[in-house]
Design goal:
By secondary structure, the protein is an alpha+beta fold. Strands 9-12-6-1-16 form a 5-stranded antiparallel sheet. Strands 8-2-15-17-18 form a 5-stranded antiparallel sheet, covered by helices on one side. The protein is elongated and about 125 Å long. It starts with a helix and ends with a helix.
Length: 796
């Protein structure tokens, strides 16, 4: 008989002779026990859901958890008593998800509050895939906003079905704790960086889980003892019932020890968390997700200041605002980052809170802001742009009109700066209402007593030296931080003149607020500019004096405003500054000079040389044409492009690297198997005892036989293994190994080397006649690594 034929026959014989393994029986559970398990598991899952509470903070979330636990437990109990397969459990879960999902996860789309609708089902299905990212890019808490309850429903309902089914039907009931742990961890990842009672919730989940595990272990032990006792009684013919007093004593000791251990562990955990707890907030998923709105993608709104002073905007209505009080400021945008070119909202080089905009699901809690409540209605007339005008610190906002839902979905807000934005922008006809808190402002007499607050803004760069010199002159001899700030603002108002430079009747005044433009402001014979330059200069001066400062662009309500509708035209645009103070928080200050007549520079400049009249008068000099955007005030040399062949080589290297990476990931498991076998072969061949080296050689050959698909009979001897392989050389090798094991003579080193040489040749012979794929399958086979039930017998 040939070797392959012998191997096939041996495998068939071994398969037919393979004894059947007894299946582990699953004890049937009573209805009372199943209900008790469902209640205990619901408690554990409810504790795990506590980490999701800060994400929602809504009664709708509580309803979702209760419904999910009840429905999930019903499905698991029905599957247990009806002996349903996993397919039917999955089908029942999917049906329940669609039947109850709209009512509890998308309540705004449920008809009569309970019945699913087509739109609700569409949002429910989409939310399974899309709502996770939305949840980590929106301001918490989210309540029942849109379909953001879907992630919680996806976690709790299937988790309850899987966990309780595992507890009631699996022989490894401890695995039922995996779903609650997943929910607990998911709540941390999806939640806020500020944890809600982390020690209490963690210890509560640990205690409930450990007690539940102990309960299961005691039950399994009691059932095993009862089976053994009944078997003994049947064997002896006795009819007495098993005695349970021992079980009760063991249960009392186990529960007592568990409670004592939990108490000690809790005390140690609380002490360790108090002493060694992290100093800062924890890292969560929303810290790593790129926000969908980035203010750095847009041009600085202060750069377009002059556009409001030009036609057609200058005289056309921009906004109509109702509900303003005297002195209220309609904020378009807050800019806190200066880089020597312009003031911008946030910074690419500094990851501050001012550059982080989030969606607003429900409302902002402004209870800590000291000020007055305001209800504002805004109608957009001629204004357009991504920045949405607001007033004070926003609490709620509601859009009106047919496009309200889309505007609401595109609305983003930064509570640090009070700046709002709508992706895609707003235009004429948009109307909305908002409620806010207008912070209380100090009186003019209180300004001199102000001191800097603790807020931070990105450190300005490119501050002109002439600005610092002018600031030194303004505050010379003035003491007190608030008084020095007031002196700086007074200096700007005293020396400054207002000109937009957009008409022939105005002196030349260039737009822009970069380093070169601000330097010119303080070096020209007359300080001429507008709110764009004065607000930027004032914010930089305040920063030099130690006050965190930022520029605010918007419209100033007229004095005496009483809440009636007020229309703002383009010429009403202005820019002020806000400085952070220890006494009042962010305080709004107006650094702009009062418009007044500008003197003739030819009469005031002593260095101006009078030129004689010429016969032909030169044409009058016209003002520089207005410019809507700030011109770049710094140039960067365009780097030379690398040669084309370098780009081609880099592309090839990149592609090759990805190919190698993917190939390495795919081949890693197979390489690991080959490496383990090589290590095992090296260990056997390098054994110090020659007899062990010979035995190891046989084991290596037998493992190769197994990996090549030949299965010897159960408990086969070496001779029987050699017979299953076929041929004379395996039989000779078997006799040599048997003699080395059982003979009284000492084994020679040369015999061991000859055995390993023969093993190598026979391993090569096993590969002869096989295809490359068959050799690969044998090389990565794990049959020899998983062990062989007859090996101990064959190694006798």
């Amino acid at each position: 008989m040939s070797a392959p034929a012998a191997g096939i026959a041996a495998r068939r014989t071994a398969s037919e002779a393979q004894p059947l393994r007894p299946r582990r029986s699953r004890p049937r559970v009573s209805a009372g026990f199943a209900l008790a398990q469902a209640l205990a598991f619901a408690v554990i899952m409810a504790i795990a859901c506590v980490t999701l509470w800060p994400v929602y903070v809504s009664v709708d979330f509580v309803v979702l958890v209760v419904v999910s636990l009840v429905v999930g437990a019903a499905i698991a109990l029905a599957g247990t008593f009806l002996r349903l397969s996993s397919f039917w459990l999955l089908l029942a879960t999917v049906v329940a998800f669609g039947l109850f999902g709209v009512a509890v996860a998308v309540p705004s789309q449920a008809q009569y509050g309970v019945l699913p609708t087509v739109d609700g089902l569409r949002e429910l299905v989409q939310g399974v895939a899309l709502s996770w990212k939305q949840l980590v890019t929106i301001t918490l808490p989210v309540g029942s906003y849109q379909a953001l309850l879907v992630p919680a429903f996806v976690l709790v309902l299937p988790g309850t079905v899987i966990g309780l089914s595992t507890a009631l039907r699996s022989s490894r009931a401890e695995l039922a704790l995996v779903p609650p742990v997943v929910v607990f961890v998911a709540g941390i990842i999806l939640g806020s960086s500020q944890a809600l009672l982390p020690i209490v919730t963690g210890l509560a989940l640990l205690a409930a889980s450990v007690l539940w595990l102990v309960w299961w272990r005691l039950r399994r032990r009691r059932l095993a003892i009862d089976r053994l006792t009944r078997s003994t009684l049947r064997a002896t013919g006795a009819s007495a019932n098993p005695h349970r007093s021992g079980n009760r004593a063991v249960a009392r000791r186990a529960l007592g020890g568990t409670l004592a251990t939990l108490a000690i562990a809790s005390l140690v955990a609380i002490a360790a968390a108090t002493v060694l707890g992290p100093a800062g907030a924890r890292w969560v998923a929303r810290d790593a997700v790129v926000k969908p709105f980035d203010p750095r993608d847009y041009v600085s709104p202060l750069s377009g200041f002059r556009a409001y002073e030009q036609k057609p905007r200058v005289d056309s209505p921009q906004l109509t605002v109702t509900g303003l009080s005297s002195g209220d400021f309609v904020r378009i945008a807050t800019l806190d980052t200066y880089d020597g070119v312009d003031y911008s909202v946030g910074s690419a080089r500094a990851s501050g809170d001012s550059g982080t905009f989030t969606r607003v699901p429900t409302s902002f809690d402004q209870s800590k802001v000291r000020g007055s409540q305001a209800s504002i209605q805004v109608t957009v007339d001629g204004y357009d742009g991504v920045w949405l005008p607001t007033v004070g610190k926003l609490e709620t906002i509601d859009f009106a009109g047919g496009n309200a839902a889309n505007l609401r979905d595109a609305f983003f807000y930064n509570d640090t700066t009070g700046t709002a934005a709508v992706v895609g922008g707003v235009s004429k006809g948009v109307s909305y209402s908002l409620t806010s808190v207008v912070p209380r402002q100090p009186s003019k007499a209180q300004l001199e007593a102000l001191t800097p607050g603790s807020e931070t803004v990105p450190t300005p760069t490119g501050v002109p030296a002439t600005l610092k010199s002018a600031l030194a002159d303004y505050v010379n001899g003035v003491t007190g931080q608030g008084a020095r700030l007031q002196a700086a603002l007074d200096g700007l108002k005293k020396n400054g003149y207002v000109s937009h430079g957009v008409s022939k009747n105005e002196p030349v005044s260039r737009s822009g607020h970069g380093e070169e433009r601000l330097s010119q402001l303080f070096t020209d014979p007359l300080m001429i500019g507008d709110a764009e330059q004065y607000s930027a200069s004032a914010a930089l001066m305040a920063d030099q004096l130690g006050f965190p400062a930022r520029v605010v662009l918007g419209f100033q309500a007229k004095r005496g405003a009483d809440g009636s509708p007020e229309s703002f035209v383009g010429s009403d645009i202005t820019a002020v500054i806000e400085v952070d103070t220890a006494q009042y928080g962010w305080v709004t200050l107006d650094p702009n000079p009062t418009p007044r007549k500008i003197p003739d520079t030819t009469k005031t400049d002593p260095n101006k040389v009078s030129q004689p009249q010429s016969v032909v008068q030169p044409p009058p000099q016209e003002a520089d044409p207005p410019n809507d955007q700030t011109q770049p005030q710094s140039k960067q040399d365009t780097p030379a492009l690398p040669p084309a062949w370098i780009a081609i080589v880099l592309t090839i290297v990149k592609i090759g690297g990805w190919v190698l990476l993917v190939a390495g990931i795919i081949m890693a498991p197979f390489l690991a198997i080959v490496g383990v076998k090589a290590s095992r072969r090296r260990r056997r061949r390098r054994a110090r005892d020659p007899s062990r080296r010979i035995t190891g050689g046989w084991q290596e050959f037998q493992d190769s036989v197994l990996d090549h698909g030949v299965t010897p009979p159960p408990s086969a001897t070496r001779t029987e293994v050699a017979g299953a392989v076929g041929g004379s050389r395996p039989a000779v090798l078997a006799r040599v190994v048997d003699r080395s094991v059982f003979a009284p003579e000492t084994v020679d080193e040369g015999d061991a080397d000859r055995v390993w040489k023969a093993v190598g040749e026979m391993r090569t012979q096993l590969d002869s006649g096989l295809t490359r794929w068959q050799r690969f399958v044998a090389a990565v086979s794990t049959r020899s690594l998983r062990g062989y039930h007859g090996r101990k017998a064959s190694n006798r």
